[in-house]
Automatic annotation (TrEMBL), chains A, B:
<dbReference type="GO" id="GO:0003824">
    <property type="term" value="F:catalytic activity"/>
</dbReference>
<dbReference type="InterPro" id="IPR016167">
    <property type="entry name" value="FAD-bd_PCMH_sub1"/>
</dbReference>
<dbReference type="Pfam" id="PF02913">
    <property type="entry name" value="FAD-oxidase_C"/>
</dbReference>
<dbReference type="InterPro" id="IPR036318">
    <property type="entry name" value="FAD-bd_PCMH-like_sf"/>
</dbReference>
<comment type="similarity">
    <text>Belongs to the FAD-binding oxidoreductase/transferase type 4 family.</text>
</comment>
<dbReference type="InterPro" id="IPR006094">
    <property type="entry name" value="Oxid_FAD_bind_N"/>
</dbReference>
<dbReference type="GO" id="GO:0071949">
    <property type="term" value="F:FAD binding"/>
</dbReference>
<dbReference type="InterPro" id="IPR016164">
    <property type="entry name" value="FAD-linked_Oxase-like_C"/>
</dbReference>
<dbReference type="InterPro" id="IPR004113">
    <property type="entry name" value="FAD-bd_oxidored_4_C"/>
</dbReference>
<protein>
    <submittedName>
        <fullName>2-hydroxyacid dehydrogenase</fullName>
    </submittedName>
</protein>
<dbReference type="InterPro" id="IPR016166">
    <property type="entry name" value="FAD-bd_PCMH"/>
</dbReference>
<keyword id="KW-0285">Flavoprotein</keyword>
<dbReference type="Pfam" id="PF01565">
    <property type="entry name" value="FAD_binding_4"/>
</dbReference>
<keyword id="KW-0274">FAD</keyword>
<dbReference type="InterPro" id="IPR016171">
    <property type="entry name" value="Vanillyl_alc_oxidase_C-sub2"/>
</dbReference>
<dbReference type="InterPro" id="IPR051264">
    <property type="entry name" value="FAD-oxidored/transferase_4"/>
</dbReference>
<dbReference type="GO" id="GO:0022904">
    <property type="term" value="P:respiratory electron transport chain"/>
</dbReference>
Length: 476, 476
């Protein structure tokens, strides 16, 4: 069974079954991805206006054995949203399906279509005095369907979980074009296999998510943010533990940053105001949201005092206004853009058992020093054991002279992560970037089960071929 | 492809590949289930001492096409743990695999084997000043493997989630006898399809869970419990909303109870001390756990005052000691036993969108009144929209005279739940009791996907045949 490229005849057929409005021009932006590693191809770009139209399209592709690459906001970092090789696919964009289908503030539930932009969902929740906590740097363009398909993480996982944990129900088009109506607004539903979580994180290879029932939360009564200078990643972990003793689930985010991040900001965005006169080696951003009766600034102050007495922190700032909170967050959220401007040789989205994090940083840094004069920007969601451990050329040089070392760097980092029982993809997914890593490090029994599931649900292999799993030779 | 009953020859073969200690006597208790609906059968009872022995057993069964029924604590309420018909199976008990493989208090993680009893896990967590929050009435005999296989719920789902939400990683034996080593201690891991959540809730039909990495939590600094008399289920929902405004995630449990529960306790356990002199129509148990700096009794008092002013509550008691907290909880946790002693005609473990709960109770009660002079005990986890809506004979009669109406009652309740976008199995699962309900109410696309997954992972259909999905005719 082989897949077929989109042909003029096939497009003509689609024009017969889908409305004109669904056909869009393939702008170059649809064929690019944020890290510029690959160029995609698309025989046609289709943006259906309804779930039924998605089903019509997928059914037509299944009948003609034409590949379909689902496309959300295009912000994925592992190439899951584009097809650089193999038969030329239909690009299926959810951009026209952005409706909020319903909001139930008293149930803390919102039902939205897959093309809704994450930031717009934040605003919709805010309008009914609720919080939708999934948040990440690309929130202004990422779409919820893509967030769910990749099980996005971000800065609030510590308290609220990842995309998977924030979804109660899904509507999706399965690979044969049938519609699964699974938009339940239920907190408990033990009626059979967990198809919802199987589709979440399957990166468009098992179904096309068209809508989701999302969990909302009451807003914390008071919020606060602090930057604290820590002696080491180990001290940061002790500080996290102390913060949770003080505030329980009140700790919403706990982000570790390294001086390299501040250096990169200074080098690439010299106008940006940085919070420290003297850049510290390591520091953390702590964000808290507390119930009635507790003052966030006081709670952060008490934490700082106790942490200073214990020798964990040497300096710190507690935001005194909403503007200052934003400014602290801006440092954290602008670091990925600074990284892009510097240009990494190899980036790693890894996770480790929490207690293994300091040892990993020590060993990884030491091993990379042997390999070359690299700069390392290690930062991320320490509370989740999730580091973005990114390797850059020496100051003043570009990565062009170092791309030959990319594979060796990646191998070194991922081998170490694997040896320490970690994951080589914490929150970005596998996409096309890490297919070989999954083959190398994945559990063989799990991989066999994944292949069996893919073959069972998508026997022709039309949905996002080449993402997550290698395309079988007889389909190439 | 048909399945074969266990034969003497097959047992002899197993004795050649498994140690003597794994073979146990089939005591009658293994063939019973708490509601006494079915009698199981077992050709042999095997309790392996290790994951490798589980794998050896499953491989042997797969080769001989002999069915395997995994058995945990035997406390399941839908008959998933026993086989009343079809080829006689191997009963695979996890009771000898109870080890705690590791505890990492600083990571809030514990790794335990599947046969560990839930209450023992609570004690292990307590010993390192941590909380494992999954809790249910059968905690003294339920085993964690069964809790995970059925995605158990219980009283703390509101705050901490169900079994699925409390599991970071699994080790399991798949239907071909291979071992999936998935015991990750990671908070984030986006490396491929979510096999963990597919096995959780699959009720032993896709794999045998042998060990799990569980999430622990810091204990709340202070805990409190109150009983409050509410005017109606609607008032209870408003009270819940008010409680969450006051205390955010601090609300750990919010249990609705009806006077019928108190009546049943008085009738079946006359020595038990009940909390109300005058039994109220509706009341709730609220359990809270707060961070440092907040006094639980004060917080409950403040909530009561505001709720009384709003006309939501008319009476209440706040526990003044740990003993009183236990006494309040005992009322809630003894109601299932009182129900068993009265003997329900039909029991329903249902969930609804939160805002649909009051309407459901009104409509359900009215429709049942048309059908007969039944007593209804409606209670449960209101915070999750999960009701145990159980129908009993009139006072002084047994269910024997009413079993002919069982199907009509169940149909009436489940039709109404389905019409109101609810679930006919909120937390107990499908087992063998609700296979027909799943066929009737399940989404066809989801059912087709489930069947495809089952056939792909367990092509011979050896694992727990007849649970969740009907056995295909050619396997009967």
């Amino acid at each position: 069974m082989t897949l077929n490229s989109v042909t003029e005849d096939f497009i003509a057929h689609l024009r017969g079954v889908l409305p004109e409005a669904a056909f869009r021009e393939v702008m170059p932006s649809y064929l690019e991805e944020p890290r510029g590693r690959w160029k995609g191809r698309a025989g046609v770009l289709i943006a259906p206006g309804s779930t039924e139209e998605v089903a019509t399209l997928v059914r037509a592709c299944a009948e003609a054995s034409v590949p379909v690459v689902p496309y959300g906001g295009g912000t994925g970092l592992v190439g899951g949203q584009l097809s650089p090789e193999g038969p030329v696919p239909v690009l299926l964009s959810l951009e026209r399906m952005r409706a909020v289908r319903g909001v139930w503030p008293e149930e803390n539930v919102m039902v939205v279509e897959a093309g809704a932009i994450l930031q717009d969902i934040h605003a919709e929740a805010d309008a009914v005095d609720r919080l939708f906590p999934l948040s990440l740097a690309a929130k202004g363009s990422a779409r919820i369907g893509g967030n769910l398909a990749t099980n996005a993480g971000g800065v609030n996982v510590l308290r609220y979980g990842n995309a998977r944990d924030l979804c109660l129900g899904l509507e999706a088009v399965l690979p044969d074009g049938t519609i699964w109506h699974g938009l339940k607004r239920l907190r408990k539903d033990n009626t059979g296999y967990d198809l919802r979580n199987l589709l979440i994180g399957s990166e468009g290879t098992l179904g096309v998510i068209t809508a989701a029932a999302l969990k909302l939360f009451p807003k914390p009564a008071g919020e606060g943010t602090a930057l604290m200078v820590v002696e080491s990643p180990e001290a940061a972990l002790s500080l996290l533990s102390m913060a949770r003793d003080h505030m329980g689930e009140g700790v919403s985010a706990f982000e570790l940053m390294h001086r390299a991040g501040l250096d990169f900001l200074a080098e690439t965005m010299p106008d940006m105001r940085l919070p420290f006169a003297e850049p510290p080696e390591w520091f953390v951003l702590i964000d808290i949201g507390l119930a009635k009766g507790l003052d966030p600034a006081e709670a952060l102050e008490a934490l700082f005092v106790e942490a200073a007495e214990a020798g964990l922190v040497s300096d710190g700032m507690i935001a005194q206004s909403e503007a200052q909170r934003q400014a602290f967050w801006e440092v954290r959220e602008t670091i990925p853009e600074a990284n892009r401007r510097i240009g990494s040789i190899s980036s790693h989205d890894i996770s480790l058992p929490l207690s293994a994090v300091p040892g990993f940083i020590d060993k990884g840094n030491a091993a990379l020093r042997e390999l070359g004069p690299f700069r390392i920007n290690c930062f991320g969601h320490l509370g989740d054991g999730n580091l973005h451990y990114n390797v850059f050329p020496p100051k003043g040089e570009t990565r062009d002279g170092y791309t030959g070392q990319r594979d060796a760097i990646k191998r070194l980092v991922h081998d170490l992560v694997h040896d320490m029982d970690g994951s080589v993809s914490a929150e970005h997914g596998i996409g096309r970037l890490k297919v070989d890593d999954l083959e190398r490090y994945g559990d063989p029994a799990k991989l066999a089960a994944m292949r069996a599931i893919k073959a069972a649900l998508d026997p022709k292999g039309i949905l996002n071929p080449g993402a997550i799993l290698k395309v079988l030779p007889d389909r190439q």
